[in-house]
Amino acid sequence: MEGMELVAFNIISNVGTAKSMIMEALYASREGKFEEAEVILKESRNYLSLGHKAHAELIQKEASGEHLPFSLLIMHAEDQMMSVETIADLVAEMINMYKEMNAVKNIVNDRLIK
């Protein structure tokens, strides 16, 4: 495998790993493991960045005049990358919501104990 296929699979592989980690962070936060969730979410951004880097290289080639053939595989890779970006934003917000819910739960529990 070489050329465009390799770039596409590089993007798909990296953003797929990022997506798995993002979901893992969400599950950890649902269990109240907020520090672990933040670490996983931060690490997922590294994989998303690797996907972006591969994509940016294609954009630079095309911008410099190199003709890049249309590819459904690249289109799929871009779709995956954009979806993972959206999921990452939503999960970051959901983690904040879990933190807030946990804080409210702790306040309520403290008042009930007193």
Automatic annotation (TrEMBL):
GO molecular function: metal ion binding; transferase activity
Chain segments annotated as coiled-coil in the UniProt record: none
PROSITE patterns: PTS_EIIA_TYPE_3 (PS51095)
One biological process term in Gene Ontology: phosphoenolpyruvate-dependent sugar phosphotransferase system
Modified residues (Phosphohistidine): 76
Annotated catalytic residues: 76 (tele-phosphohistidine intermediate)
Alphabetized UniProt keyword annotations: Magnesium, Metal-binding, Phosphotransferase system, Sugar transport, Transferase, Transport
Note accompanying the cofactor annotation: Binds 1 Mg(2+) ion per trimer.
Residues binding Mg(2+): 79
InterPro entries: PTS_IIA_lac/cel (IPR003188), PTS_IIA_lac/cel_sf (IPR036542)
Names of required cofactors: Mg(2+)
Protein name: PTS lactose/cellobiose transporter subunit IIA
